[in-house]
Amino acid sequence: MKRLLALLLVLATLLPVPPASAEGLQPCHRVAMSYEDTTQENKSVIRLWKAETVLPEVDEELRSIAAAFVDKYGPDLPKAANKTSKNSRLDVGIRYSRTGLTWLSFLVQARVTYHRDLMAQEIVSRTYDMITGQRVLMTDLFDDASRGWDVLAQAVRKQATAYFPDETPDAQALDRLCTQAALQETDFTLHGMSLVLHIPAKTLYPGHETLMEITLFYPEIREHMTPKAREETDNLSYYKTCAMTFDDGPERTNTTKVLNALMETGAVATFFVIGNRVKEYDDLVQREHDEGHAIGSHNWSHMDVRKMSGSAMRAMVDKVNTKMIAAIGKPVRYDRVPYGLYPQMIKAKVGWPLIQWSVDTYDWRGRSTKVVLNTVKSQISDGDIILMHDVKDKTPESARQVANYLAEQGYLLLTVDELMAKDNVTLQPDTVYYRCVDGDTSIKKRD
User: Fold this and answer.
1) Mind listing the pLDDT tens digit for each residue in 328-378?
2) For residue 11, is pLDDT > 80?
3) Partners of 96 in the β-ladder
4) For the chain, how are helix, strand and coil distributed in percent, rounded to 5?
5) How far apart are CA 361 and CA 247, in angstroms?
6) In this structure, are residues 114 and 78 in contact, taking their beta carbons and an 8 Å threshold?
């Protein structure tokens, strides 16, 4: 008997250990992010991000892709002027996102800006099984005969043509993108509740360097996936979910820092942007979009809507969307009313779905990161929407610590769109949403 037990113990050490299904951040999902800035002789700046995972071979491939972008674009950066607004930059970022118990997605993203205008952008995506180190391809998500390819093609056609509504996409290029062969080679990443295809806008709309993000929520496509892909996208069986949201931006310094914090932590967020700030900070709005965050409206100005006429409120929709289309190529889908004064917007029949919140950090009061984090710790529950403000000085560090804490506590951070889609909730005009847990979007009751 002793020999049998000893043999069993030896075999146990040799056999691969299956990943735990308990809530929490899986060891194989841990990523440490950092960046280094290099100023060239002509004062242009290169920012190079680096990801360190549990697998050195993954780190090396990501470094190789990022270094190739530096070699390609770095030598030709134009001379920068002394003023910050007259910059010349190459930013090579690495976005990462986790799904399931072993998969991690990365998007290596090179953005060349001159005087804050986006001059060029190039991407390469990778998804890995972080236990085996094996790459996950689109053909690992869908079998050759899967109807999923048709669903993908329909999504590309519908969502890509919704960009730049005043322009007509290249019809032949669009047809090519929608073939199964092309879809198999399209850059993609997997997130908490969505598969995202990343397509350079210039593929269909010459002259536009932004990205088109084609989003398919897991409830739409999981039935068409392979068994392994269904397992790795079954996140509601493994994790709790919530959404981090930011109001009042953009603002040059703090919004930039918030975006850096989100890249560092692998978190996605939803930014509720004030319409009259978009033109001045269109580069930041574009960066929010191109780095995978959702963007909603925070009205045209931070004005008390009780002092506005119904016609003025309704007119905001076109005003906001005109600026948003110029910045990112598409209109917003929903709004958060300043001060949460949604009854006036409903009465005026503005037509936007209205997103409230269920956890208020009160960071706008200048609260310390410790207090903000403790607020989240004491109030957070599954399906919550967290309210923060990306214009405040202490919020970037608060966002970083909150995102890390939530990951350790077994939460996946989702966009508002993902949070609703996980329960098949379709946003309706002039309807208020506070959170989403098992389809319940009502106000959160306090104990």
Assistant:
1) 999 999 999 999 999 999 999 999 999 999 999 999 999 999 999 999 999
2) no
3) 106
4) 40, 25, 35
5) 12
6) yes
Closest CA to 98 of 225, 226, 228, 268: 268
Cα–Cα dist 40/407, whole Å? 37
Q: Which of 124, 118, 47 is nearest to 286 (CA)?
A: 118
The helix/strand/coil state of 437 is strand
User: 3-state SS string over 3-62?
Assistant: HHHHHHHHHHHHCCCCCCCCCCCCHHHCCEEEEEEEECCCCCEEEEEEEECCCHHHHHHH
Helices (H), 226-272: 227-232, 252-265
Q: Which of 74, 86, 85, 66 is nearest to 39 (CA)?
A: 74
As a whole number of angstroms, the distance between CA 325 and CA 333 comes to 12
Q: Is 411 helix (H, G, I), strand (E, B) or coil?
A: strand
Per-residue pLDDT, 447: 65
Residue 440 contacts residue 55 (beta carbons within 8 Å): no
